[in-house]
Structures are given as C-alpha cells and as structure tokens.
Amino acid sequence: MVLVPGSGHVINRDNIIKFEHAPLATPNGDVLIKDLTFEVRSGTNVLVCGPNGCGKSSLFRVLGELWPLFGGSLTKPDRGKLFYVPQRPYMTLGSLRDQVIYPDTHEQQQRKGISDQVLKEYLDNVQLGHILEREATWDSVQDWMDVLSGGEKQRMAMARLFYHKPQFAILDECTSAFYLHMDGRGNYEFKPITEETGVLPALAADDGNRDDDADEQQDEEDGGRDDAHRVHWKTKTNKDTN
Ligand SMILES: Nc1ncnc2c1ncn2[C@@H]1O[C@H](COP(=O)(O)OP(=O)(O)O)[C@@H](O)[C@H]1O
Ligand SMILES: [Mg+2]
User: Fold this and answer.
1) Where is this region: Disordered (predicted)?
2) In testing the pocket of ligand 1, which one of 3, 24, 26 has its CB within 8 Å of the most ligand atoms?
C-alpha cells in the first residue's frame, strides 16, 4: 500500500464524525490502523480504548487537522466546532476569568453576552467553584499552570467546554482525574456536559493504565478490559448514562 499524505478527502458537515476506509498513519507514513471506518453522531459518546502508542491521540490529531489524511474520507464539522481537551491542558497567562474563556478574550466574552455569573456556573459544574471563592475575584492573576493541580487543570479545561459549546468534545485521557470525580460509580459519564449543552457528544481516549479503585469498578462493569493491541470502540448513548 502506498500512502500519500493528504490523499484522503475531508468533508465538512455538522454533527457527525465519520471515518470511511481511512488509514491512520503518522506524518512519516507509519501505519497505525490500515483501514478505519466508524461513525459518531451528535448525542453519542464514544470511548476509545487501547494500549499506549496504539494511535488514540493520533486519531484526534487527524480530527484536529494537525495530521493529514492518507486516504479514504473523513466527514466532520469545521475544525472550530471541535474542542480538544488534552491530558495536560494549557493555562494561559492572565486572570482566573481568562482560564475559563480561553482562548477567548474578555472582550469576546462580553460580545457573546456571557456574564461572569454564568462563568461561575461553569466552574461549579466541574467542582471548581471554590477557586473563585478563594481568589475572591475573577480578575485575580496567578501562575495558573503552577497554582492549579493536574486534576484542577483538567477540570478547568472541561469548564471551557461549557463556555465554548463545541459540537464535539474530544477528551484525550482526561478521564482519570475528572470523570471519576463526577460520578462516584466509576462510569465514564458525560452527563454534566450533555445536560448543559443538549447536543454535546464526546470522544475520549483511555489507555487502560490507571489502577485506582474506581477504575477496577469500571472494569467490572465493562466485564473486564480487552487488552488486545488494537483500538477498540465502545459506544454509549446518552440514554444509557441516565
Ligand atoms: N509527530 C509524530 N511523528 C511520528 N510519529 C509519531 C508522532 N507522534 C506520535 N507518533 C507515534 O505514533 C504512535 C501512536 O502515538 P499516539 O497516537 O500518541 O498513541 P496513544 O494511543 O498512546 O495516544 C506512537 O508510536 C508514536 O510514537
Ligand atoms: Mg495518547
């Protein structure tokens, strides 16, 4: 098989992510998945599982148009309608407010008509309301990369989802520090997001390397984790999570 970068077709369409016979390959042409076909529609959550290095983040790089498509086709919303939450989210220089609205500016927030009170709701959604109480003001400037713990940074990045309301949220291994806190039963629930936005589906990656109690419970609920060296897909509709 000869792989030509950029030879795949990227089609922009709202509320769907669909790979059709697309190889997943690194920019230097190493093939991670020969032939990928799957579809995710709005309102559906997908958990992408597989061992380290199998290509979960690579899939998201292709979705984010950071990497070329080497063949087949990819139907997805315009890049601006996807929001990527990395494992180690970036905190920007500036105020507490700037962390929630990133990459927007305060002026953009005002133009969108989103008040600071609404931002407080978003912080509360991810159980970060105490940060505002601690700082006393949205204008508090700190070295947020340093001040916030790893889990708090991930939750801050989740708060950004409520603010930006993307069509798809792509959560790359940010489940361990966040979701298990959201749901004491160890489920990968996206409920807080879907309730807020109505339509927001999510893709999440999980390399199965965590070993806390909640994780074991998750394994039991899953009927044990499949350790096959390939990406496997689990779909879960919002209905299932209720
Ligand atoms: N920029 C890059 N160029 C070439 N290969 C890469 C690049 N980034 C990652 N890879 C390789 O692609 C493979 C899949 O990586 P990745 O998608 O990050 O795995 P994971 O499933 O753990 O998220 C790995 O072998 C990794 O070394
Ligand atoms: Mg990864």
Assistant:
1) 202-242
2) 26
Alpha carbons 31 and 204: distance in angstroms, whole number: 21
User: Which residues are CB-contacts of 184 (< 8 A; sequence separation ≥ 6)?
Assistant: 214
CA dihedral 12, 82, 49, 27 (to 10 degrees): 70
Distance CA 220, CA 242 (A): 19
Nearest CA-CA partner of 14 in 37, 42, 35, 36: 42
Name the fold adopted by 42-60+79-234: Rossmann fold (3.40.50)
CA distance linking residue 34 with residue 28, whole number of Å = 15
- To the nearest 10 degrees (0 to 180), the angle between helices 116-125 and 150-164 is 130
16-56 pLDDT per residue, tens: 999 999 999 999 889 999 999 999 887 677 878 788 888 98
- Give the ranges where 149-212 is alpha helix by DSSP (H): 150-164, 175-182, 191-197
d(CA 141, CA 158): 20
Q: Closest residue (by CA) to atom 18 of ligand 1?
A: 57
The reply to whether the predicted model has a pTM over 0.90 is no
Confidence of residue 234 (pLDDT cuts 50, 70, 90): very low
Q: What are the backbone angles phi and psi of residue 85, rounded to the nearest 5°? A: -110, 110
C-beta atoms surrounding 88 within 10 Å: 13
Pocket-forming residues, ligand 1, beta carbon under 6 Å? 26-28, 32, 50, 52-58, 207
Residue extents of the structural domains in the chain: 42-60+79-234
